Amino acid sequence: MVKRKTLLITLCIIMATCCSCNPKAPNKKNKFHKGKHLYSADSKQTLPTLSHGVLNSNENNKNDKKLLYLDNGTLPNIKYSLFLNNALIKSYTSKEDTSFPKKYSTIDGILTFRGDNLRNSPSFGTCNIKEEKLQEKWHFNTNSGTWGGGAGWTGQPSIVKWPKDVLKIMNIKDKFKNKDNFVEVIYASLDGHIYFIDLETGEETRNPININNPIKGSVSIDPRGYPLLYVGQGIPEKGAIGYRIFSLIDSSLLYFIDGRDGLALRNWGAFDSSPLINRKNDSLILCGENGLFYNIKLNTDFKIEHKKISIKPEVIKYRYTTKKTPEQGMENSPAVYKNLVYFGDNSGNIQCINLQNMKPIWTFDNTDDTDATITIEEENGKPYIYTANEVDKQGAKGICNLRKLDGLTGKVIFEKSFEAMSLLGKSPVNGGALATNIIGKNDIENLVIFNIARYKNFNGGILLALDKKTGKEAWRLEMDNYCWSSPAAVYTSKGKSYIIQGDSTGNLFLIEGTSGKVLHSINLGSNIESSPAIYENTIVLATRWGKFFAIKVK
Ligand SMILES: [Ca+2]
Ligand SMILES: [Ca+2]
Fold it and tell me: What global pTM score does this model have?
């Protein structure tokens, strides 16, 4: 999902197709059994049997592209297959509780895209705001490769306050190891490097890691505070394309997932998706642009006293087709509630999968390409999800639907439709929703806030606040320039909300959360596609052309 070149490459792979604009009701009704932690569509589900181990494994069938029809009768719209370490398996059950812990991370900071498994926490801590102004604190110049530098879409950094004992054993410069309240920014660039920067000063804290290929997605850092970095590759230039896990003790590569996978139904190996790591059961989940969903038992062995970390992954791959999969692949980041994972795909399917047995629970036709990450909120012990689609397969004009769905059934709670445009052609730049929404907290706890690109006019956009219960519009901010960058909310200790929003001409806005009123803006010089991560009063984000910025909210 980078403009120009990426989409050129992607265009060679995709088939131009016209999808139905009519949203459909969810496919199926399933009975749900609410246990202590687990939700299941399968009343006979038994726990536990074995850990990430082979269940009913049959032949080693690496090249078999025939799909098993596992959920006979319950989900006629989806066919899927499961592979464990590349062997086809008939079914799977984890012996462990696969639900995510309520608190995503044990350490301070922003460790994955939008901060946690609900994908609704891009800001850490509270913001002390007096003047209601934005001010540059520092900027950092990246290199520039064929794709430029800085960061693209989704391009969010991680911001990490390391545990002291872990800080000691990593290859960080000594002055930072001994610095009080040291917080490290870890930022992957379109120039092919992952940079390490002191949040306070903008100085480099260690040598960059170079993967020699442009990175578009957002890095993840292990939520246990382990020195592990997870990063996807956006474009193939040198060598294989795929997903990498590095040790941050010595910057060594521990593991590589080859995105061009004989089991996949699409021969495109990029990863814009940012994974989630379940610290309770040592597993990682990730979406691939090859159409595979990965559930990986990491088998992490961290011996801090020996300054050693290793992983020994066991990989489950989930492959599927629906009646609506002209284009395979996922570019958004999986969102999780307990043991239920949600993601959208390039064809506009949304699905919910039970991590306990890797069975799909429901699918939903979300109209068009869905790259914006789904967000989740629990209401009365039940998950609800928010999602919005692009205008892509629909053509130069189409409908962007903002939706709230019941997370257990896929049933529509509300749906609001807006006309939007898209740039087609050899270098398409899509409109509709590319930005991930905000589910409001504190003084905007009644609101969900979406951004629609190319609304009303071709270059324009709109930031829209809707009532969470009804979908009724609470306020709107029509914008001269569209936004792919996700809005992010910060809150004062008293619970007053402010929205941070970057646009495609480099404007960064500070907006009052309750009213949508622009309070201040600064211009960073070029297109902001990246989404911000915010640590207390400091926003970190990038422009497409060569710069990372730390911006203070005063
Ligand atoms: Ca897409
Ligand atoms: Ca698209």
Answer: 0.89
Ligand 1 mean position, distance from CA 371 (Å) = 5
Q: How far is the CA of 427 from the centre of ligand 1 (A)?
A: 14
Query: Which ligand has the minimum distance to the alpha carbon of residue 391?
Result: 2
- Residue 190 Rama label (left phi>0; alpha psi -120 to 50; beta): alpha
The contacts of residue 183 (CB under 8 Å, 6+ apart) are 108, 109, 159, 160, 161, 198, 199, 200, 535
SS3 for 266?
coil
pLDDT at 323: 83
Structure confidence at residue 507 (pLDDT): 98
Amino acid at residue number 443: D
Distance CA 106, CA 98 (A): 18
- Residue 16, classed as helix, strand or coil, is coil
* Nearest ligand (C-alpha, residue 393): 2
Question: Residue 292 C-alpha to ligand 1 middle, in angstroms?
Answer: 14
How many degrees, rounded to 5, is the angle at CA 297 between CA 295 and CA 301? 150
Average pLDDT by consecutive 10-residue portion of the chain (554 residues)? 43 31 34 43 34 35 39 63 96 93 97 98 98 98 94 98 97 96 98 98 98 98 98 97 98 98 97 98 98 98 98 98 88 97 96 94 94 98 97 96 96 98 93 98 98 96 98 98 98 98 98 98 98 98 96 98
Q: What is the pLDDT of residue 497?
A: 98
Distance from the alpha carbon of residue 368 to the mean position of ligand 2, in angstroms? 8
Ligand nearest to the CA of 287: 1
Burial 306-325 (b: 16+ CB within 10 A, else e): eeebebebbbbbbbbbbebb
Pick from 56, 66, 59, 58: which is nearest to 91 by CA? 56
Q: How far is the CA of 187 from the centre of ligand 2 (A)?
A: 24
CA separation for the pair 197, 210 (Å, rounded): 15
Distance CA 239, CA 300 (A): 27
- Beta strand residue intervals within 262-396, DSSP E: 276-278, 283-287, 293-297, 301-303, 308-310, 314-322, 335-337, 340-344, 349-354, 359-365, 375-379, 382-388, 390-391
